[in-house]
Each structure stands twice: as structure tokens, then as C-alpha cells.
Design brief:
Number of helices: 9
Number of domains: 2
Strand content: under 5%
Largest sheet: none
Shape: rod-shaped
Keywords: Membrane, Transmembrane, Transmembrane helix
Number of strands: 0
Helix content: over 70%
Radius of gyration: 31 Å
Length: about 250
């Protein structure tokens, strides 16, 4: 947290120093009555590029973890912004002569800015797509982990029962947990509802196991075994759909 705060402050200081230095250099070397139009175009372009670079750097420090996970995209974005700064800075060397073809000078600046915006936009779209996929994967991992954890809780409840009939239930649920453990957590959105259905059915199973102590033991045992087989079938169907979707 401290590194992020100091990094942001240092970035701001460097940005302000850059703005002042740029202003002084342009006012000292480039400002003259013969090239007033191109002077302001060049100065505005350089200041814009410096501002974009500062905004980019300011975003990096508070979001280092996200940047590390998507390093190529953020690195590409930084290269685009830095390239824009270098290019417009090079353009500024021709300010004294650009009034001879001011419309062409404006055009080349416009094209450069447009290319920068397009390239940055494409990279940002890539980053958004990557982050959305990452978020989906994380949520799916949570779903599968929740399924496995819920089954393990039911397994502990079954093991705590002192009844010879629970041996069959123990073997079924142990096999089911193993299948869940080795199931593919990354699934398409179209079949994500299957994981939610599995979780809901496991909660129903937990209620049945809890209520097994009361009422007809034989009837409860048969219902729970049937429920476990149904969960096994649902999991197998879910895994089949995942394979078909890939």
C-alpha cells in the first residue's frame, strides 16, 4: 500500500515537472510570430501525450496485481502512449517550418492521434476481454470448490452416523467427491447453471441427511442413496456437456 501511494506521488511530481519543463522549452525555443499556429499545435500535442503517460502510470501503481496478470496488454498500451509522446516531440522540431504547410502539419498530427486512439482502443478491448475471462474462470473455480466443500460436509455427517447402512453412502459420496475434484472448472456460460443446480441438490441432500435421525430410517436411507446416485448422474452429464462445448 505504501509503495502504491509513494509511486503515485512520484508519478505526479514527475508529471508536473514534465509539464513545466515542456512549457519552458517551447516558450524559449519555439514561440515566434511566424509559426504561432503550429507552435500551439505542437505544444498541445506534447502536453496531451505527457498527460496520457501520467494517467497510464497513475493507473499502474494502485493496480499492480492486475497489471502483472495481464502484463503483455498493459506493456503494449504503455508502448503505444510512449511512442505517441516521442513522435509528437519529434514533430515539434519542424514547428518553425510547418507554417509553410499548416494544413499538412495539422493532418499529420490528427492521423498520429487517431492511430494512437485506435491502437489503444484495441489493446483496451483485449484487456477487457482477458479480465472478463479471468473473472469467469475465478467464479467457476469458486463454484466447483463450493460443490466439493458441501459434499465433504455431507460426508462428515454421514460418517458420524452409527449405522451399518451408511457404508454404501460413504462409498458413493467418496467417489462423487473424487469426480468433482477432477472435473473441469472452466465451463461455458451456457452450462454454468448446471453447477448451480448441483449446489442446490447438495443442500437438499444435506437436509435429508440431517433429518435421517428422525422418522423411517429405511426410507431415509433409500432416499439419500437415490439422491447420491442422482447427483452422480448430474455431474456426469455436466462433464459431458463441458467436453462437447470445447
Amino acid at each position: 500500500m505504501t509503495i502504491n501511494r509513494y509511486g503515485t506521488r512520484i508519478t505526479l511530481v514527475l508529471y508536473l515537472v514534465g509539464l513545466v519543463s515542456t512549457w519552458i522549452v517551447f516558450m524559449t525555443l519555439l514561440d515566434n510570430s511566424n509559426s504561432l499556429g503550429s507552435f500551439w499545435i505542437s505544444l498541445s500535442a506534447v502536453l496531451l501525450a505527457e498527460t496520457l503517460l501520467w494517467l497510464y502510470a497513475s493507473y499502474l501503481f494502485p493496480n499492480l496485481d492486475r497489471v502483472k496478470r495481464n502484463l503483455p496488454g498493459y506493456l503494449g498500451l504503455g508502448v503505444v502512449i510512449l511512442s505517441y509522446l516521442i513522435v509528437v516531440f519529434v514533430y515539434s522540431f519542424f514547428t518553425r517550418f510547418s507554417d509553410l504547410a499548416l494544413s499538412g502539419y495539422i493532418l499529420i498530427h490528427s492521423i498520429t492521434l487517431a492511430c494512437t486512439i485506435i491502437a489503444s482502443g484495441l489493446i483496451l478491448l483485449y484487456l477487457k476481454s482477458t479480465m472478463d475471462h479471468e473473472e469467469d474462470t475465478r467464479s467457476q473455480l469458486v463454484n466447483l470448490h463450493e460443490i466439493e466443500s458441501a459434499l465433504k460436509e455431507v460426508q462428515l455427517m454421514i460418517k458420524s452416523m452409527k449405522d451399518p447402512q451408511v457404508k454404501e453412502m460413504e462409498s458413493i459420496i467418496a467417489a462423487l467427491i473424487e469426480k468433482v475434484h477432477y472435473s473441469d472448472p472452466v465451463i461455458p456460460r451456457s452450462i454454468l447453471h448446471m453447477d448451480h443446480e448441483l449446489i442446490n441438490h447438495i443442500y437438499l441432500l444435506e437436509e435429508k441427511v440431517t433429518g435421517m435421525a428422525s422418522g423411517n430410517q429405511e426410507h431415509s436411507f433409500k432416499m439419500i442413496v437415490h439422491h447420491l446416485h442422482d447427483l452422480t448422474r448430474r455431474l456426469a452429464h455436466r462433464n459431458e456437456q463441458v467436453l462437447l462445448a470445447k
